[in-house]
Design goal:
By secondary structure, the protein is an alpha/beta fold. It has 10 helices and 17 strands.
Length: 353
């Protein structure tokens, strides 16, 4: 039967499916179809679906298609009798439950369901420390699960907290117990990366395992990826290798403020994805900026004025040496009640030529 769908390019399928699931717009009752390089994802709420995939920059379109009803797929909800809150990172399923009995029941349902999952982790702490990592409780492991073979490792080679996450035709090896990573930012990362032109010099000031840096290099940019977390940088180097861009990615472990002297005036584009603290690094960003530079500045602020503090911080650091033009004020997602995670795309142009 004909059902409403979002149609996207095949390489954008997982990011679109994740965005639709987070928006509660994914139709689990019908199969996803693939035809001539396009993926057709069934949805239950067309308005919510349009909003969910808006960051795909025109790659997504609403349509209808004759899709078969799903048959015989047993989900965790079928087993539990309620819909649990789950997040998938690679073949790891993440839950957030305070009740140990409920956490165990959900984890067992995930393992027993027909959806692929190698381990179930429960959040055991908030994100903390300079390295932005959290503690995890390993609630369940399916020792018989076999993940898709990757370039270097099969499921049996990985710890319960380590996985290979795929996003927009790239893959990222990571360990959730040692690094920060959010799959919820997939469409935002894609939005930024799509702006990059071949030959650009891109500096990611807080690079993690490389989810901005590796796709940027795949676009033909020369990339410097900096992070305080040495383990994250090790993964970034490995991810550059497995995605075939090692020759275009320089990964540096350390504080970006200590790296600035080596790359002063180098960057055509800067990524500042460190909400809550990015304002502390704006002066360093200006030091790194070339004669013309785009800054992608991420912030978390109250909904009453989500963009003003970031704009003020950039202007204070950059003017009068640079003319400052705010190109985009973009809401990434809701972060907490009355707080928004936002991005400012800001063009700096030197006034001294």
């Amino acid at each position: 039967m004909d059902v409403p769908c979002v149609a996207v390019a095949r390489e954008a399928g997982e990011a679109a499916r994740t965005a639709l699931a987070e928006a509660g717009a994914l139709d689990d009752d019908h199969e996803i179809a693939v035809d001539d390089g396009r993926i057709y994802i069934p949805v239950t709420d067309t308005d919510a679906a349009v909003d969910a995939v808006a960051a795909l920059d025109g790659d997504a379109e609403m349509t209808t298609r004759d899709l078969p009803v799903r048959q015989g797929v047993r989900t965790p909800a079928d087993i539990l009798g309620f819909e649990p809150s789950l997040e998938r990172i690679g073949d790891i399923v993440v839950i957030d439950e305070d009740d140990p009995d409920r956490a165990r029941a959900i984890a067992e349902a995930v393992i027993d369901a027909d959806l692929p999952a190698r381990s179930v982790l429960n959040r055991a702490s908030k994100i903390k420390g300079e390295l932005r990592v959290r503690e995890w409780e390993v609630v369940a492991v399916d020792s018989s699960a076999t993940a898709e073979e990757t370039n270097a490792a099969a499921a049996s080679d990985l710890s319960p907290t380590e996985t290979v996450h795929r996003e927009y035709s790239h893959e990222f090896l990571l360990d959730l117990a040692a690094v920060y990573f959010s799959p919820r930012l997939a469409t935002e990362r894609h939005r930024v990366v799509e702006q990059i032109e071949p030959g650009e010099q891109v500096l990611d000031m807080f690079a993690g395992v490389g989810p901005f840096a590796i796709p940027a290099a795949s676009r033909g940019a020369s990339v410097v990826a900096v992070d305080l977390n040495e383990t994250a940088i090790d993964y970034c180097r490995e991810n550059a290798r497995r995605n075939g861009v090692s020759d275009r990615v320089t990964a540096i472990a350390g504080d970006v403020r200590d790296v600035a002297d080596d790359y002063r005036g180098w960057a055509d584009r800067l990524v500042m994805n460190l909400p809550h603290s990015a304002n502390e690094f704006v002066e360093t960003a200006v030091e790194l900026a070339g004669e013309e530079c785009v800054i992608h500045y991420y912030d978390i602020q109250h909904e009453d004025d989500p963009f003003g503090p970031g704009i003020a911080a950039i202007r204070e650091a950059a003017e009068p040496e640079y003319a400052v033009s705010v190109e985009t004020e973009h809401v990434v997602r809701s972060y907490a009640p009355h707080e928004l995670n936002v991005c400012l795309d800001v063009q700096l142009t030197t006034t001294h030529r």
